[in-house]
Amino acid sequence: MRPIRTLLLASAIWASALAVPGADPARSQELQRIAAVVNDEVVSVRDLRNRIRLVIVTSGLQANNETARRLAPQVLRTLIDEQLQLQEAERLSIAVSDQEMTRARADLEARNGLRPGEFDRFVTRLGVDPGSVKRQLRASIAWAKLVRRRFSGQVSVSQEEVAEILTLLEEQIGKSQKRVSEILLTVEDPAREAEAAQLAARLTQQLRQGASFGSIARQFSNASNANVGGDIGWVLDDQLAPDLAAAVANLDKGEISEPIRSVFGYHIMRVTDTRVLAEPNPLDAKVRLNQLFLPVRSGTGSNQRASQRELAETIRTAAGSCEDLADFAQQAGSPVSPDLGEMQVRDLAPDLRDPVATLQTGQTSEPIDLPNGVMVIMVCDRQSAASNLPSADQIRAQLEAQRFGVLAQRYLRDLRQTAFVETRV
After folding, report:
1. Residues 6+ apart with CB under 8 A from 232
2. 172 by DSSP, 3-state: which?
3. Distance between CA 254 and CA 303 in Å, rounded?
4. What is the pLDDT of residues 180-215, one digit of tens each?
5. What residues have CB less than 8 Å from 404, skipping those under 6 apart?
6. Are 31 and 44 in contact (CB under 8 A)?
7. Which of 98, 312, 317, 332 is the 20 to 30 Å CA partner of 228?
8. How far does CA 113 lie from the centroid of its chain?
9. Using one digit for the tens of pLDDT, what is the confidence trace for 126-177?
10. Contact, 299 vs 357, CB < 8 A?
């Protein structure tokens, strides 16, 4: 593929993007020009113009000639890759159903804050052909189905691999984690080094000015996680390559790195969130409680309190269930309802919170001294808070996605190498 004359290309395309369709016959003729030939099919300048406009609109980039000039080479390569993916899917009889397209468009509308069914009208008002959106969605769906079908027999994750990762995570409990996203601009041709570096710098600048990281990742990133907005997930420092880890270590939540050159290309990293890797917080558990309350009248001295504590201990030992505790409370003349209802442990009064935090279903607390009496609490039901450790199924799915992603990148690289591709702009 020969280099694109980006300045001339962007000037013509961006001018046409701002024009009224059909108002200028010369411009209309320009849009029908061929931007690239991919095997026996073409990508037109109109296709390229629509996609550049779509990228700028959905990513929140600055709408000017300079932005279009920077984006044009990468956008054209993306269109060429999509054409290769669609051609391969057609060759292998991979079809995309209407239901799959409907779901994909609904996801796209949700990501852009639009009401259901509004996207076509939205992009049309902005001068973008809805067909450009549909083409992108169809290529993405077809390629994902194709990769899964072709490599399903080559991707497997053993129980031992999952167990090893779970063990590693459990050993890291208490350490800080960051949720990280990335944009990767690969450099497969040394002649494009400067072009990729300039695009990475430009994207970084606009991301810091408020452009959507997820949208730009979906449009430009060559990483396998591009379709999820570049999300890598929760990582510890030693789970990233050293140069990437060093950059992420210096980022706070919401910050974006400078472009980082690796053997693959230019990475732009963003920290989307931070947390401490930990077991479930017992204060976040939901509990249903019963109580025994034995009052102590003020001014009666320590003897009555001691007597009530002794009775509370006797009942606590004898009660085998919440129903037993309620019966004993009634027999002992407790002046309050035994049913405390359901609540989070953290919502309990401070005097009760710590005694209840570690109790399991069916267990009772030691007698608790309160200013006006003695209380015993039993946990009738307990729902532990979800751990922020990933489940075995989540780990397995993540490993599978990573391996499918690597195979997909190799597959697309092979298609590029064997295809006839000629750029004409």
Report:
1. 179, 180, 181, 182, 225
2. coil
3. 61
4. 999 999 887 888 899 889 989 989 999 999 899 998
5. 147, 148, 151, 155, 224
6. yes
7. 98
8. 17
9. 778 888 888 999 999 999 999 999 999 999 999 999 999 889 888 888 888 8
10. no
